Amino acid sequence: MEQFDIAIIGAGPAGMVAAIEASKANFSVVVFDEQTNPGGQIFRSIETTPVNDKTILGPDYWDGLNLAQEFRASNADARFQSSVWDINNDKVITYTQNNVTKTVQYKTLILATGAMERAVPFPGWELPGVMTVGAGQILLKNAGLIGKNLVLAGSGPLLDVLALQYTKAGYKPLAIVDMTPRKNYLKAIKYITGALIGWRYIVKGLKLKWDLKMMGVKRFSFCHNLSAQGNDKLSAISFSQGNKTTRLEVDHLMTHFGVIPNINLTRALDIKTYWDKDQLCHRPVLIDSFLSTRKDTYIVGDAVGIFGVKSAQINARIVISHIVKNQASLKKFTKLSKQDKAIRPFLEELFRPNLNDLLDIPDDTLICRCESVRLGEIKEAITVGAKSLNEIKTFTRCGMGPCQGRQCGNSTTLLTALSNQLPNEQVEYFKTRSPAIPVTFSDIADTE
Amino acid sequence: MSFIKLTNQEKIKILVNNVEHSVSSNQSVAAALLELGISHSGNAMREDRKIGPFCMMGVCHACKISVAGDQNQRACMIPIKAGMKISTGDYNGTV
Fold first, then answer.
1. Residue A20 class from Cβ within 10 Å (0-12 exposed, 13-18 middle, 19+ buried)?
2. pLDDT category, A444, cuts 50, 70, 90?
3. Which residues of B73-90 are buried (b: 16+ CB within 10 A; e: fewer)?
4. Which of residues 403 through 442 in chain A touch B, CB cutoff 8 A?
5. Cα distance from N-terminal residue to C-terminal residue, chain B
6. Is A402 on the interface with B (CB under 8 A)?
7. Residues A351-408 pLDDT 10s
8. Which of A36, A135, A144 sits opposite B56 (nearest CB)?
9. Contacts B64 to A, Cβ<8 Å
10. What pLDDT band is residue A258 in, cutting at 50, 70 and 90?
């Protein structure tokens, strides 16, 4: 079997920096990623994007090109279109690439599996034509595709980022339906100290809002009760502002309710996770310098919790400094990490979706998109005694489909807590096992 | 549902449900189908309901299609290639 000193799962900003630094330190490094190219989601298609006009995707995106080039030039063995679905206690990684299953062995493992958008169910969100804002970004980066007659809805800076990219490309979205609650602005003020340390982020955010206003992008603020309508595909949306309901005919709706760590592989490796009350999601428990509760296994980047692209890279440097036991650089990067993260409590408070309100939805709203489980069925399961996500899964099949709970896990946690009047952290998450990504028997049969 | 193509890419021929289409290269299969105006990739499990791409990053599995008879492909994760034989509507949620 092939042997490597360090195996890295994910070639986003954290994975790339970890690979570059580990290679510099003369370790043999293997990197797995499901995509065809490095970059992760934030720098998706950075090497291949057809969008050559650099003003459209902006300097923050193009920053990724240097990193990808440095990664390509490193000695790390990068394996793309590779889905890692098992890692055992003998440090053997099993992955499938082009329908063939292979194994490698490592000494130290770094998970850089990134984040995904929080799926928040609302009536009609299953209609083709409804996508996430992240999906809209990927379509733009990967393919230069722009959704006609688009409304962006939800909360968080990504809505504004995509609206600006569209506008710069010459296609204004119809509107931004901003669902950030009014009270968040007041609550965020108590974290102003952190905001002052991270003032550059604030300036950037305010400039974004100002630019959109100047460009005439319509914004509906403090909205709630979002729903999508259509037969077989999206044709209209409606939402409320106070007591006033607005209906818009649209071709596309892209929603965003924040980002959460992708924890399936983490949990399949029996790494402990906990419910973070501030980020409203499950996060891995870290012991020291991003070392997890599993032997010789580090976790970096947004797979740890949502701290953004800069922190992801700083944290990857902390991990490599820890592995090579370089105390001076460990100290330096830990300080930098603290500075970059200072803004987070402010941003978290400001953009935190009011999930309890958002989940106050009709019983026929789809919760589990894979197995077609609606809210009413989940409530029934809770009525007869389901208190954990596994019990809900047993009763309803919620979370049993191919996405393995990635789309329903977060909302079902909150719904279960709400109905049982339990704190979120007392709701046990799905038991996640290998394969951490669905693989076919024929792929497993084709094992090298 | 309609998308505007901002960019000019080399065109390639693909087969979707046995019909030949010309579509831009250098993008994912999911993007290519959306460029062609094909928003339905499959059918939901346990319900008579059409589904289509949602997350574009490989986590939601709603864009699964068949490529050359292989039923279990996430359209957002594979690059489009000339001569690809794609069929939509095969996927019914089973793994």
1. buried
2. confident
3. bbbbbbbbeeebebbbeb
4. 403, 406-407, 438, 440
5. 28
6. yes
7. 999 998 899 999 999 999 999 999 999 999 999 999 999 999 999 999 999 999 999 9
8. A135
9. 402
10. very high
For residue A119, the chain B residues in CB contact (below 8 A) are 60
Across the interface, whether the CB atoms of A50 and B56 are under 8 A apart is answered: no
pTM of the model: 0.96
Q: Is the Cβ pair B59, A403 closer than 8 Å?
A: yes
Cβ burial of B12 (10 Å; 0-12, 13-18, 19+) is: middle
pLDDT in the model for residue B92: 58
Nearest CB among B3, B7, B55 relative to A50 is that of B7
Helices (H), A326-397: 327-341, 344-351, 355-358, 375-383, 389-396
Which of A196-200, A297-301, B57-61 is the least confident region?
A196-200
Of A17, A248, A276, the residue nearest A153 (C-alpha): A248
ipTM of the shown complex: 0.95
Peptide bond into A123 cis (omega under 30): no
